[in-house]
Amino acid sequence: MPAPGSAPFTLGPRRGYHCLVGKEAATGTPGAPFIEDLERLDLIYRTLCAILFNFVPTSGHPGGSISSGRIVAALLFRGMDYDLAAPEREDADVLSYAAGHKAMGLYAMWALRNEIALASMPELVPATAEQLRLEDLLGFRRNPTTATNLFRSLQARPLDGHPTPLTPFVRLATGASGVGLPASLGLAMAARDTFGQEAPRVHILEGEGGMTAGRVSEALAIAGTARLDNAVLHVDWNQASIDSERVCRDGATPGDYVQWDPAELAYLNDWNVIRVADGHDLAEVLAAQRLAAERRNGQPTAIVYRTVKGWRYGLEGRASHGAGHAFCSPAYYRSLEEFERTFGVSFPRAEAATDPDRVERAFWEALGVVRGTVRESRAWARRMAEALSDSRRRLEARARAPARGGPSLEAAYSSEVRPGSIPPELVLAPGSSTTLRAALADVVGHLNRLTRGAFIGGAADLLGSTSLAAVAKGFPAGYFDAQANPGSRIVACGGICEDAMGAFMAGISSFGRHVGISASYAAFIAALQHVPARLHGIGQQGRRDRTGEPYRPLVIVCGHAGLKTGEDGATHADPQPLQLLQDNFPRGVAISLTPWEPQELWPLFLSALQARPAVISVFVTRPTEKVPDRGALGLPPATRAADGVYALRSADPGERPYHGTVVLQESGVTYTFVEQVLPELDRRGFRLNVYSVASSELFDLLTQERQDQIFPSVRRQEAMGITGYTLPTLHRWVCSDEGRRRSLHPFRSGRYLGSGQAAHVLREAGLDARAQLEAVVEYGTHFARRAG
């Protein structure tokens, strides 16, 4: 009851609706024969899950895979419009396993669906390379180097512990808690932007435990605000996690972890909510999914199914979360008995062998019983295959087509758009002033107009501060709203939520028609988006390995990077973010950019984009800078930055005196060196090689011969460095112990730095002009004396 003197309150009105589907509401569902067919499918599926866990013990999550089986079966065989023969069709509905730990279920259902089609309508299936076969289940959680006999002879597909696009029909790498849902919603937004009101529906499978991650609340807010009406979240609410049997509040009973239930959380964020009283009752499941499809009101929809984790497996609740029956134990064989009674078959009783080939043989024999059962159930398999055929017919009847005049990324990848040719409107006059962040926004804005809006951005409540708003110049103002403002290129990312924003933008990029861009302080975004960036890289690698197509880039704008953000203090002016991203991904997956002046942004960003990595991170600063007159300073043109590393000044080591090599990295220290230190070194007659590191990874893309021409290994052995980032980011360029000892970096004093204007912070760090000059003079004098 309210406290004395207070007034009761209620939640304000929502655009979303809320309803319950129970037994009495399940009228109008498909007839009993179809439900009986789904019951049979579920029995086979549950048995497959039991077999998978048995032969890959301590792996996978049988409980959640089993409790979500009926939800997934209803979607694949009734609720979705897709073509089994064409996994990459962009006009098809998508099922995204945000709950990546249910991968066991995904693989079991995919293989069973494929087996059904092969048994009765083989014309429905794609080429073998695009199938997930029953044979491939031998590869569950197996490394590609596995050498067991059947894995090799049957050419089983290695199946990761969590799904990636290496598996057909999987668009995203998921598994890290909470990442899959915002990434799936980004996928839904890209589909909505491409196809408009008739967009493919993106169905997202998640559990309430996965929804406890903070990034999920942020993502629900993004989707509810953007009104992504083609997104449907299916929540397998079973109240069990690794440690708890009461994850959420349930009625009057408090939760162990959170005090909402999934329906409340979705409804609070303006989603339609459909509660299913019994998520194991197929009539209720089908009725809820039909209602979600028919009752469209411009908001995303969440269907919350009450289920039991490990239903009919023999272990329920948290006991089935990440564990199952012991290998070939009596309990395991009891989990097979319903299948054996129903179909009049017996599974071989394997010995509890440890020899990998013998275990694999027993595994294959068990799968063979499943295959034989499906093939013997001809009439049933035919009816289920007809349901798959109906799905394709519905898809064809919809005739979905991308909106005319919509985004086209191909324009940005055209050979006519070249890093070495800066568009006239982006040419900066020497002596003029701008910021690195503004120059980047102008570059991306130009590309956005060129591609008719293929770049979609979001910022952590920093659109103006990071200049990201300029990316959408020429497009409708305001935030993207699928119903009221679909032309906007800016997503309202839930306020300050770098975490969900990164995954959401990765999902946008994954669709293939757009580039998602997120922006915030480098101090936060590099760390908070490392996980979604890594998963995007993993997903894109899997997709490329399967399809041969290049990666689809995600852009992370690390704004306000470097020490010139000093007024905000050590919490915001952080030297560490580059170390999280540079050279920290497999080669070709990610490219980091560290321009020092605004003219470098076009050649750098376009070179990175056209290289087609999965992730591009751009480090840009906040203060206004004066565009240098490179000709007057004796510097090469800014387009040389496209090589990743280039010489600002060159000196012949064969001529004396020769004072060695200095490597510069980061805008603040390079401006200081070029404007204040270099003129004094020239006056004193110092002859140095001076290099600027603009992108370690772009340099890696050059041929070895070209790399050696630009920056020979001998220069690395003699160099000292000056960086506004951490010392390890210089280790590729400064390779001697002495060079590293002489190098200047923000943590040289062993302390985080204090607040203040940029000049004061640089002085405290020992990176101001006086400190740089003293260090270089001492190094150069010593080097020349030693060289003779």
Outline the structure in words:
The chain is of the alpha/beta class. The protein folds into 3 domains: 31-398, Rossmann fold, CATH 3.40.50.970; 410-624, Thiamin diphosphate (ThDP)-binding fold, Pyr/PP domains (Rossmann fold, 3-Layer(aba) Sandwich), CATH 3.40.50.970; 645-787, Rossmann fold (3-Layer(aba) Sandwich), CATH 3.40.50. The protein is built from 28 helices and 17 strands. The strands form 4 sheets. The protein has a 6-stranded parallel sheet with strand order 1-5-6-4-3-2, sandwiched between helices. β3, α7 and β4 (231-237) form a beta-alpha-beta unit. α22 crosses α28 (769-787). It is elongated, with a radius of gyration of 29 Å. 56% of the residues are buried. The model has no long low-confidence stretch (mean pLDDT 95).
Fraction of residues in β-strands: 5-15%
CATH topology of the largest domain: Rossmann fold
**Through-space gap between termini:** 89 Å
- What do the pLDDT scores average to? 95
Shape: elongated
**Beta strands, count:** 17
> What strand line-up does the widest sheet have?
1-5-6-4-3-2
How does the helix and strand content classify structurally? alpha/beta
**Number of helical elements:** 28
CATH architectural grouping of the largest domain: 3-Layer(aba) Sandwich
Would you state the CATH class of the largest domain?
Alpha Beta
Count of domain modules: 3
Helix content class: 25-40%
CATH homologous superfamily placement of the largest domain: Thiamin diphosphate (ThDP)-binding fold, Pyr/PP domains
What can be said about the biggest beta sheet?
Answer: 6 strands, parallel
Low-confidence stretches: none
Based on CA atoms alone, the radius of gyration comes out at 29 Å
